[in-house]
Design brief:
The protein is mainly alpha-helical. The protein is about 60% helix and about 0% strand. It is elongated.
Length: about 70
């Protein structure tokens, strides 16, 4: 139902950070042979662990328009 859909717009700078985190995550996880921690990602990105957590939460909360919604 289209009335129930809420669209979250993510600023461009934040989308860029999300992409950067994902790129680094995908690069280091095969080397680590486990999931990267927020601390490890923050070190490589030059930001705080809290910023990594907040950005990842935003990326999980965001639903792209292309994703089908459940009824």
């Amino acid at each position: 139902n289209f009335e129930d859909i809420k669209i979250m717009r993510i600023p461009v700078y934040l989308r860029d950070r999300i992409r950067k985190i994902i790129k680094i995550k995908e690069a280091i996880e095969p080397i680590l042979e486990r999931e990267a921690t927020p601390h490890e990602l923050a070190e490589r990105l030059g930001i705080t662990e809290d910023q990594v957590r907040q950005i990842m939460k935003i990326s999980l909360d965001a639903v792209t328009v292309e994703e089908p919604t459940r009824s």
